[in-house]
Model the fold of this input.
Amino acid sequence: MLIPPAHWESQREQHVDLLGMPKSPREFLEPLLANLVAGSAAVCDALDRGKVEISADGMLRLPAIDALPEKSEPVRTRETVYKLIGNVQFPDLLMQVDAATNFSDALLGHRAQTADELVGLYGALLAHGTDIDAKGVASMIPGLEPSQISVAMRALEGSGRLRRANERVAQFQRQIPIAAFWGDGDKASADMMSLDASRHLWNARVDPRRRTYAAGLYTHVRDRWGIVYDQPIVLNERQAGVAIEGVETNNRGEDLLRLSLVAVDTHGYTNPAMAIAKLLGFDLCPRLRDLAERKLHLPRVFRVPEGLEAVTVRSVSLSAIERGWDELLRLAASIRSGRVSATLALQRFGSAAQGDPLHRAAEHLGRLLRTVFLCDYIAIEDFRREIHTLLNRGESVHQLQRAVYSGKVAPERGRRRDEMLAISGSHALLTNIVLAWNTSRMHEVVERLKREGTRIEDEWLRRIGPAHFSHINFRGTMKFNVERYADTLVQRRPDTRNAASSR
Done:
């Protein structure tokens, strides 16, 4: 699955340059060890100032992050903004975003030829991306037959269509001026939400929290709120591979803003995953649930600052990293070139890989990187708050996703992998459409209020997000006013009678 050894030997320099990594392990480790010295000193300083403590069992204890001061202005501003936005029907919202992004072009592969074709596409999107089946959608949209929706649903399973449509909508949402208050766009969170499903579904497993069978949908949410990657996954498996795969897929796009950091929970990281992520050019930042994980793993030759001996473990071998450096670069280059996915590569770094020199190098490099991250996480409260904020935004988007897909995956749905991918992609697209529409309307309302002399501070806008959905009617009879947007969304055919008269 990796780059063949002969090919690697002859083109090693080109692949390493593409990764942007140094050819020598020493060049990579020296600045990393310097960061470790500075980070451990910062932890000692935090310990002296009482910002962190070491318990009797030798564990780092972090106090809860102080909540931001409660201010009534951001709350009132949010209520005012959404009150002025008003209620909206889901069909109107879909068509307005489509007129701004032409995501229907990406889904069809061409401009819609007729209004019926366009409405059928919307019906298929709803049938894939919500808990309503083709017959249910047809009963909600007058004049639409279930057979039309079924044909369009199969078309949406085509390779790459939903991904391209999602990119269009996410890029449109990210470029709306108000989104700049929420982040720079180069950070994201990655997490899974579960959908109740039949026990006969191939990727359904028992959700340990709810004790019901469910399928997982894994999404990457940018700090500006848009979903940049989605993929169906199996519950109860480590999610580190798909977390890396989503960032790498996004960063391969030439016209997409690269992600430099992705925040994950405990399930979204392993030590080898942190190493591979770093070699691919971004940081994997986990919010660790178990305090036992908050140990500082250091090289054997590292001088431990006074006061940190109880929370340090000398378990990092620099020589193991140096011996496996070339193979680490070969693995990262194989992922970058598309020969193997990060998800598949990380599956091979399970317990069965222990003892392999490549796994050993990745494990020890990951321990070192995790220690550098923990030093920043412990000593810098603003950095810790940023990680939590990213993950909380992802949870807010999950609430919106559950409003879009409020039911259960039908027993006959998702049995083919292409269909499960279509369910995930359509669901992400519908969620992105809501986020984009809310962001656009928020910007218009805020600009209007400012012109009228209403005081709105930037800090208030940073605390108001677009994952709001109580003003959207997702159900009921749906009427698509195609004629209003026909010039933008439907391919107009020339009038033959006018053409004949002109001749």
Remarks:
- Residues 5-69+165-400 form one domain.
- The two ends are 63 Å apart (CA to CA).
- The CA atoms of residues 286 and 308 lie 22 Å apart.
